[in-house]
Every structure is written in structure tokens, then in C-alpha cells.
Amino acid sequence: xxxxxxxxxxxxxxxxxxxxxxxxxxxxxxxxxxxxxxxxxxxxxxxxxxxxxxxxxxxxxxxxxxxxxxxxxxxxxxxxxxxxxxxxxxxxxxxxxxxxxxxxxxxxxxxxxxxxxxxxxxxxxxxxxxxxxxxxxxxxxxxxxxxxxxxxxxxxxxxxxxxxxxxxxxxxxxx
Length: 175
Description:
Elements: H1 5-12, E1 150-151, E2 169-170
Parallel strand pairs: 1-2
């Protein structure tokens, strides 16, 4: 299912939660859009511009968001089970209490992102940028794959968690 710019504008400006299960929104420009409680299950959002978008409590299970721009997006309590976020830009995004079980976050940029209360069971964060991210209270910290993920001294980890033992690499900065 593909949409014209006019159709997409009309859809996101309707009242109530948006229902776009399986929609093809590849490269869509949705910056600043209110998609709170939207159902985007199994949708293709590859390369989409979702900067500053409100996706709180949205359903994005099995959605493809590879290379999507989610800088400063609000994803609190969003459901992203099995979502594909390979190479996504999530700088300063709020993922507090989101469900990212089995999500593919390989090479994702999570610099200064809020991941407090996030479920990362079986998530793949290998090669991700975690510089300055707040990962202070996540669920299942012993099971996500952090191999090759880079972090800085400003990254906040759960108490007692050893990022080095989990395979993460301390770097001075990302400048």
C-alpha cells in the first residue's frame, strides 16, 4: 500500500490513532508528525524522516525502520518487538519503557538516547553508538548483544553491569 503526499498528509491529520498495518512508507517525510498510539505493525519505514515525531505507545512490531531518521523522536512505551532499526538515527530519542525485544539495532546511532526502563531482551545492538545514552534501568541487560557497540564515559549503565564484559567498547568521543 503506497500513499501520495496528499493522502499521507490527510491520514496523519485525522483524529484518533492511525491504523497503517503493513503500509509502505519508505522514505516518507513524517518529521514532527503525531503518530501517538498508531498501529504501524509490519510497515516499511525504511529511510523515513521521523525527526521529532511523536510515536508514544505506537505499535511498530516487525516494522522496518532501517536507516530511518528518528532524531529526538518520542517513542516512550512504543512496541518495537522484532523491529528492524539497522543504521537508524535515534540521537536524543526518548525510548523510555519501550519494548525492543529481538529488535535489530545494529549500527544504530543512539547517542544521548533515553533507554530507561526499556526491554532489550535478545536485542542486537552490535556496532551501535551508545555515547552518552541513558541505559540506567533496562530489562534483561545480560541478554542483548552489545558486541562492538561503542560508548563513552557519559553513557549511563545499570548498576553492577559491565559493558566491557558484554562486548561494548569504551571510546573517548565520537567527534
